Amino acid sequence: MKKIIFLFFAVTTLVSAQKKDITLEEIWSGAFRTQGMNELNSMNGDFYSLLNFNENTKSISVDKYSYKTLEKIETVVDSKNLSELRYFETYNFNQNETKLLLGVAIEPIYRHSTLGNYFVYDLNSKSVTIIDDEKIQEPIFSPDSKKIAFVKNNNIYIKNLETKELIQVTTDGKKNKIINGICDWVYEEEFSFVRAFEWSNDSKHLAFLRFDETKVPTFSMDIVGNNLYPTQQVFKYPKAGEKNSIVTLHIYNTAVNKTSKVDLGSYEYIPRIKWTKNTETLSAITLNRHQNSLNLFFINTSTGTTNVVLNETDKAYVDIHDNFTFLEDNSFIWTSEKDGFNHIYHYSKEGTLKNQITKGLWEVTDFYGVNEKSKTIFYQSTENGSINRTVYSIGFNGKNKKRLSNASGTNSASFSKNLDYFINTFSDVNTPTIYTLHNKKGELLKEVLNNNQLANKLKNYNLSKKEFFTIETENGSFNSWMIKPVSFNSNNKYPLLITQYSGPGSQSVSNSWNGYNDYWYHHLAQKGYIVVCIDVRGTGFKGRDFKKVTYKELGKYEVQDQIDSVKKLAQLDYIDENCIGIWGWSYGGFMSSNCLLKGKDVFKMAIAVAPVTSWRFYDSVYTERYMQTPQENPSGYDENSPLNFASLLEGNFLLVHGSGDDNVHIQNTMRLTNALIEANKPFEQAIYPDRTHGIYRGKNTRLHLYNKMTKFIQQNLKNKN
Fold it and tell me: pTM score, two decimals?
């Protein structure tokens, strides 16, 4: 019989005696929030800047600091000195750091996109100039600092900062039809970028994407608001198997005010464009619709010729990333899973492989940069275990590897532009975030900021320890953690709540400090619950095969693994096998729904928040990456959809959704509701009006939600101790 293997870390209990209990009100008021370094920006030389709030003057400032000493060098700008601006929310420097873009009245559109009013602040003259009287998107300086490109009403504009002339680059932009320079909904959500235009290094060309979403089906949502009649939010949303935007690449020549279209052959997506070190060469990445064949193009702006310098294929799918950079000779650094784990490769400008720089049964998780003079690469990886993150340097030849962050836990680096220094952000399960300064050799120079005050505050609370362990089943070894009640007695039996996300490439079990939900789990442990999290097959950072086993079968292997793992846990003497529940959000809600239905002999209760209930309802890019289209793979879509198993419901089920969810539409919950009604199955439901996928906007929204979920758990997973 397989065993549950517990790999207990040196995790110290925060209390040895009875302390205060954590309340939901404290969690959602931000009482346990960690301090951070706001809007840290690496500057030219050995300097960085921060966005600071001055409590005395109630003003916002951008302040410049030295990496060497951590001392403040100067205040670049302070809103108290600006008659035109009482405050600002964002800032960005131009290339030579003589000007700043200041953003105010920023309002969200979707997950990443925003609208705002933007001003140029000149550091020499101390003058402030508004870019446009209307709200605009994604303004950016040209490299020569003479112009700013931005998008307004789906068209691209260029403002000359010297002559004040405004040039309209495109004229065909129209809502829900043509978008120039800004991504459509699905690109923003699934390829994780908004600004789809880039200046050439010599400021002579502007490359941009044009989205023709005319034939993309439209989705609409009623927004209740506070008016007598609701309004409608109407936007283009390509569901799996439906038509996508037709996306094309264009290059605008500033000297002759002319735009040319680039021919990239046959493709479905252009998820990245980036100028190379050669001012006449643009790179572009294309993907086919199955996303299993990627081409990296070099485009010559003088001749208009295109050349595929790299083609990467996979039997499942190829992930899009930002871990590539061009060297002075236009060779490039790239990461790939082609040997089974994500590693760093060096290619010539012609696309010939020069060297695989990193190797091993572990993953490169971030790429920080290249020092060409010393031929050194800086990166983050899972070399110290898949639940940890560590910072390293390595030579171009794959030798002289050096570990730059010593503590085991989650480390990430923010390097100076010349890569001589970095600020390391560290946390582990016992340690709230600490920021420390290091040189490029990894030597600790100084502590920048800690959260000792929070750590000391938490000593007054009744907190349990989080124990990491591994669950072994017939189908794999799964990273897990467990939180027990402080008053745990192995002779008692406790109700068990499983928390999980389980989506492709995700990670929920990590050696890092608490998030908001972790405090909720401690709150539940105080009430006598054991909480466990399991990363099953399909999750990330354990190699290609572990992650991509779920290809074309989302919800099959992950559900089986959760059920098998919980059966193992139920064999423990202190687990009440008749009192086990599961919950999840988004993909995790899809999972918790399926687990309750298909694992009805194991799970007695489930909560699904904003769940996908059929992948037929979700967007094309995400869904088809893992499932192909519904037309090609109908059984993969339907045999793992909760809609088709509503009749199996026996446990207690809480279904939650925000009616304004533009991501996972409330259609998912409504269709599952109908299926449960038709099967005459009782369940509970909570709809949060106008809330988006995160269900957080509005007074007390999160507090209300977590109060509701806590009461549901208490009512349906009775603690008998």
Answer: 0.94
